[in-house]
Design brief:
The chain is mostly helical. The protein has one domain. Helices cover 83% and strands 0% of the residues. The protein is built from 4 helices and no strands. Helix 1 runs antiparallel to helix 2, helix 1 packs parallel to helix 3 and helix 2 runs antiparallel to helix 3. The protein is elongated, with a radius of gyration of 18 Å. The chain starts with a helix and ends with a helix.
Length: 139
């Protein structure tokens, strides 16, 4: 009887650890991205918050560090996963994909800059997640 009760508890622990791994990865990506944005705004490299940004170089910079942070967050999700690390990395990538689609729709509606930038965030979400999971598996 005790082993029958232990299985659901162990499954709940694994589910909790899976959720935690993905949430930690997501928080890392969001905090690093917004933190870097804020520093660049304060240094007046970026225009003030709420103003459109059309400079291709600055948008490429933002895309690059967001990709790096996406890889890092996915690596963390894979590292903290109780099992199936690549699956956790890709789940985080899927969440990023959905959030990027919502952001692209919102950016287009608000005319916050060129449409290629938010579209590239959508396009890169899953490949960055895969790279993060792959880096963990190779470590």
């Amino acid at each position: 009887m005790p082993t029958e009760l232990a299985q659901p508890i162990e499954g709940q622990r694994r589910l909790g650890r899976s959720i935690l791994a993905i949430v930690v990865g997501l928080i890392a990506v969001v905090a690093l991205s917004l933190g870097t944005d804020q520093v660049l705004h304060v240094l007046e490299i970026y225009p003030p918050w709420g103003q459109p940004m059309y400079d291709t170089g600055l948008l490429l910079l933002a895309l690059v560090y967001r990709c790096v942070y996406g890889v890092l967050g996915s690596y963390l999700a894979a590292r903290l996963a109780p099992h199936a690390p690549m699956k956790h990395a890709l789940i985080l990538g899927g969440i990023g994909f959905v959030l990027a689609i919502l952001g692209a729709v919102g950016a287009a509606a608000m005319n916050m800059g060129p449409n290629w930038y938010p579209i590239m965030l959508v396009v890169t979400a899953l490949p960055c997640a895969w790279i993060g999971g792959k880096l963990y598996r190779g470590a």
